């Protein structure tokens, strides 16, 4: 991989896409940030600018570095702007068919050398790669929310990924100040698999009437040492994302009951009570 800063395209400017854009722009990469929703793109641009401003105020970035990062960010609604990108990271809805479709579109625009990556939490990286004409340049780069703060990044080669690409990407991710870990392409990879029982058992404890949400969250944070309790964390992630991940891990493990989703979360998802971003989830934020 060349040492000149790679131009990076990011598809989806929601919670994850915006955070990843901030990380890579701060690390010196020109960034094309694309969203089909103009309002989401505007929100992301404003929130990245505000985050960079705050980092400069706190002295965590120099003003010049914050200004330079902001100047590297190019919001766009036109995928043709990805033509010169050396890496494209997708962070759109957690839906296999939609992700496969977007990569077909991307491959019609980028060069044959451009590396393609998905930020999927739970889908098979191999299945997304299978929709590509050049699946050997495809892999998973899975950030955690909020991407600018969370150190861990899972790097997930697909079955088709060319040898050494995952190692090259690990070095690149390290150069962004992150700590990459290689994960196998299995449902939920490492962290989202370990996290399923954290959420699932918390919901079961609630459903069985053993404790209320606030008590469970309190016990896990104050006594268990977790940064967030399971209900606060699910609301933070968003039930649109978290429910889909639970369903996808359950299905992908051939309906293993250990990963069975709950109706409690399904109903929140169906109602559009996605958590913090909707003003309502397990808790009320209005
Ligand atoms: P989000 O809903 O906040 O953002 C998704 C964005 O993608 C939206 O702005 C939407 O307008 C845009 N989008 C959807 N389809 C598009 C398309 N076809 N073309 C262009 N833009 C499109 O979602 P998110 O929480 O950022 O999650 C995105 C991905 O990252 C998912 O695959 C999710 O599983 C994964 N992920 C989420 C988290 C999390 O905690 N939220 C953590 C790690 C990974």
TrEMBL record:
Q: Which residue intervals define the domain 3-hydroxyacyl-CoA dehydrogenase C-terminal in the entry? A: 188-285
Q: Which residues are in the 3-hydroxyacyl-CoA dehydrogenase NAD binding domain?
A: 8-185
Q: Which residues of the full protein are shown?
A: 1 to 286 of 397
Lipid biosynthesis recorded as keyword: no
The protein here is known as 3-hydroxybutyryl-CoA dehydrogenase
Tell me the organism. Hymenobacter ginkgonis
GO MF annotation terms: 3-hydroxybutyryl-CoA dehydrogenase activity; NAD+ binding
Keyword field: Oxidoreductase
Q: Which GO terms describe its biological process?
A: fatty acid beta-oxidation
């Amino acid at each position: 991989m060349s040492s000149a800063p790679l131009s990076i395209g990011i598809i989806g400017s929601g919670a994850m896409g915006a955070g990843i854009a901030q990380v890579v722009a701060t690390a010196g990469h020109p960034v094309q940030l694309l969203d089909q929703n103009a309002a989401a793109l505007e929100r992301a641009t404003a929130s990245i600018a505000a985050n960079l401003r705050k980092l400069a105020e706190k002295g965590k970035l120099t003003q010049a570095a914050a200004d330079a990062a902001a100047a590297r960010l190019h919001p766009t609604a036109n995928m043709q702007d990805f033509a010169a990108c050396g890496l494209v990271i997708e962070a759109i809805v957690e839906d296999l068919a939609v992700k496969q479709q977007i990569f077909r579109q991307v491959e019609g625009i980028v060069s044959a050398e451009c590396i393609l990556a998905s930020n999927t939490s739970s889908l098979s990286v191999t299945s997304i790669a299978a929709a590509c004409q050049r699946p050997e340049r495809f892999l998973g780069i899975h950030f955690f929310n909020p991407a600018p703060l969370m150190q861990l990044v899972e790097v997930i080669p697909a079955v088709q990924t060319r040898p050494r690409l995952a190692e090259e990407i690990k070095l690149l991710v390290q150069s962004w100040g992150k700590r990459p870990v290689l994960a196998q392409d299995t449902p939920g990879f490492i962290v989202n698999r370990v996290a399923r029982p954290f959420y699932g058992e918390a919901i079961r404890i609630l459903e069985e009437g053993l404790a209320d949400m606030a008590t469970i969250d309190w016990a896990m944070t104050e006594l268990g040492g977790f940064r967030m309790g399971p209900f606060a964390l699910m609301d933070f992630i968003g039930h649109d994302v978290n429910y889909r991940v639970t369903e996808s891990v359950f299905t992908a493990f051939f309906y293993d009951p250990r990963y069975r989703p709950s109706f409690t979360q399904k109903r929140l998802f169906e109602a559009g009570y996605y958590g913090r971003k909707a003003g309502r989830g397990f808790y009320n934020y209005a």
